[in-house]
Each structure stands twice: as C-alpha cells, then as structure tokens.
C-alpha cells in the first residue's frame, strides 16, 4: 500500500507494480487518485515505448499488465488491514504523518512493515506514535524524483528497527530495480544532506551577482558531470520543498548553520508563488 498519489507516491506505486507487486494507491479523494493514475499512465507509456519501440501491441499489453497490479482506494484503514508493506508519501507535516500512522497501526496486521518516504523529517519522530512492537517494523524508505528513473533508495535505520525488517526492505528495494543504501536517521540522510547545501550555495552565487543562473547550471553540468545544474534541479524539486527543508534544519540547529542560512532569493520566489516547474515559474520560466 502506498499512501499518497502525488509525484512521489505514484512513482513508488509504479515501480512496485512493474516489479510484480500488488499495490494499492491510497489518497483522500478520487481526484487525487485520478491524478496519480494519470502520472503513472504517462510514465509507463514512456517506459513501454522504450522497451518495445516498434510494437504498439506489446506496449499496450505491458501498460495493461502493470495496471492490473494497481488498485486505488480512499479507504486507508481498510487497505492497511490487508497490506504487508505500507509506504507513506504524503505531505511533509509531522502531525499529519503521525495521525495517519497512529490510525493505521491499530488496523494493520502485526507483521506489516511501515515506511515513510520523508526527505526531511526524523523517521524516529514520525514513529513515536506507533506501538513499541511496530517501532521495530518502522523505517525510512526514501525514493528520488523522478522515481521511475532514479536508481537510488535510502533505507533509513532508526535505533528501534529490527535487522530482519531492515534486510527485508533492502530486498524489496532491489526487487523494484533500485540500489539501496543504508543510512542513519539524520537530517537529509545522505543525498539531501549534500545536495541541499550545494543548491543553497548556488543561490548565493546568484545573490552575490557572481554568475547567471544559466551559467551556474552549464558549469555544473559540463564541469562536474551533473545531469541537471543546481538551479534547474531546485526548480525541479520545488522551491517550496527546498525552503521547507532549509527552514526545518535552521530551526533544529543540527546542521552547520552557515550551510543553511536564509537566502533572500529563495524566500522571495516562494512568497511570490514561483515554486519551480510545477507552477510554470521558478528561477526559470517553463512552458505548460
Ligand atoms: N518515467 C519513466 N522514465 C523516466 C522518467 C519518468 N518520469 N523520467 C526520465 N525517465 C527515464 C528515461 O526514459 C530515460 O531512460 P533510459 O536511461 O533507459 O533511456 C532516463 O530516465 C533519462 O531520461 P531522458 O533521456 O528523457 O532525460 P535526461 O537524460 O535529461 O534525464 C533526468 C532526465 C533523469 C530527470 C535527469 O535530468 C536527472 O537525473 N536529473 C537529476 C534528478 C535528481 O537529481 N533528482 C533527485 C532530486 S532530490 C530528491 O528527489 C529528493 C527529494 O527528497 C527532495
């Protein structure tokens, strides 16, 4: 079961279904579920065209076969009562996540494993709400955007999670075609701990007027082999998400303060509603 039919949730549903798992995508409204199905449809068509370039029938049957593994529901409790693995990919809000997991803990079978795809909240804190037993079956499972294309999953080990569950998550990750890495429950885990300060420094280069956004991106693509430059990547991740992560780290004071000090250019764009690709405008403009 995957909770959340947004970009991350639908991506996780897709890779699990492609690997042959029966998966139910759960969200609070039919509209959200329709949106999730449409993201999956687009992505699967792309995969199918690549896999079976000259064979439209094979493309169609591939997409149908994957969809046959996917169901949707607005009833989280009922779905959880029959799920071996619950992966949550909803809004980055600790209260909402705890409320959801607290409810599911009461209805899910004892053996169910609970995972959060959080990118910035402590997994241990989210898990505070569940029973002591479930805490041994609760971990972070952090996928990357776009999920069907990015090969990594960070498997986040809390102090409470059992070795057996951790190993099972490594196995699941490999079965969905990803490479797992193990990491402790620290801010940003591995990827975002390195990526976010790097992107923040790129914004500061702009603020100091040292180079243009386009040149910063070109420099990092051609000079450091990045698939996207840091500015383009920030627009891709979402500037609201970037700000949310950085604000959280500032508040917690765990990360070196200079790395996440407030950045006017980022704050201004967010307050203007220019959140990156998803709103058609961020550091750059995007055609709809
Ligand atoms: N669905 C299915 N497949 C997709 C896809 C999608 N939505 N998007 C890309 N792909 C596949 C393509 O089919 C192609 O497959 P192939 O290697 O088998 O040919 C491959 O990915 C590359 O795609 P393209 O050739 O179309 O385009 P690019 O080469 O420009 O790659 C990209 C696109 C994969 C998005 C690349 O630009 C990239 O890797 N960008 C960086 C993304 C990144 O860093 N993501 C992490 C962000 S941080 C994060 O998510 C954490 C969060 O917590 C904040």
TrEMBL record:
This is 3-hydroxyacyl-CoA dehydrogenase. One of its GO terms (cellular component) is mitochondrial matrix. It catalyses: a (3S)-3-hydroxyacyl-CoA + NAD(+) = a 3-oxoacyl-CoA + NADH + H(+). Gene3D superfamilies: N-(1-d-carboxylethyl)-l-norvaline Dehydrogenase, domain 2, NAD(P)-binding Rossmann-like Domain. Keywords: Fatty acid metabolism, Lipid metabolism, Mitochondrion, NAD, Oxidoreductase. It is found in: Mitochondrion matrix. Its main location: mitochondrion.
């Amino acid at each position: 079961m995957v909770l959340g039919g947004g970009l991350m949730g639908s991506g996780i549903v897709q890779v699990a279904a492609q690997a042959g798992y029966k998966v139910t995508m759960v969200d609070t409204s039919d509209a959200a579920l329709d949106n999730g199905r449409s993201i999956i449809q687009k992505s699967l068509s792309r995969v199918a065209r690549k896999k079976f370039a000259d064979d439209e029938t094979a493309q169609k049957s591939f997409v149908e076969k994957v969809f046959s593994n996917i169901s949707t529901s607005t009833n989280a409790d009922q779905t959880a009562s029959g799920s071996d693995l619950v992966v949550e990919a909803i809004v980055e809000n600790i209260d909402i996540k705890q409320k959801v997991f607290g409810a599911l803990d009461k209805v899910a079978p004892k053996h169910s494993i609970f995972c959060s795809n959080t990118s910035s909240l402590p997994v241990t804190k989210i898990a505070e709400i569940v029973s002591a037993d479930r805490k041994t079956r609760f971990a972070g499972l952090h996928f990357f955007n776009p999920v069907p294309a990015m090969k990594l999953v960070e498997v986040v080990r809390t102090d409470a999670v059992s070795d057996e569950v951790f190993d099972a998550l490594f196995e699941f990750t490999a079965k969905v075609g990803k490479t797992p890495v193990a990491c402790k429950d620290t801010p940003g885990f591995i990827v975002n701990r390195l990526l976010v300060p790097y992107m923040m420094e790129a914004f500061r280069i702009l603020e100091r007027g040292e180079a243009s956004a386009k040149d910063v991106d070109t420099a990092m693509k051609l000079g450091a082999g990045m698939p996207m430059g840091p500015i383009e990547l920030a627009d891709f991740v979402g500037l609201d998400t970037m700000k949310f992560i950085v604000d959280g780290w500032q508040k917690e004071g765990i990360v070196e303060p200079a790395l996440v000090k407030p950045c006017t250019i980022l704050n201004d764009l967010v307050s203007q509603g220019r959140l990156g690709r998803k709103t058609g405008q961020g550091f750059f403009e995007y055609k709809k």
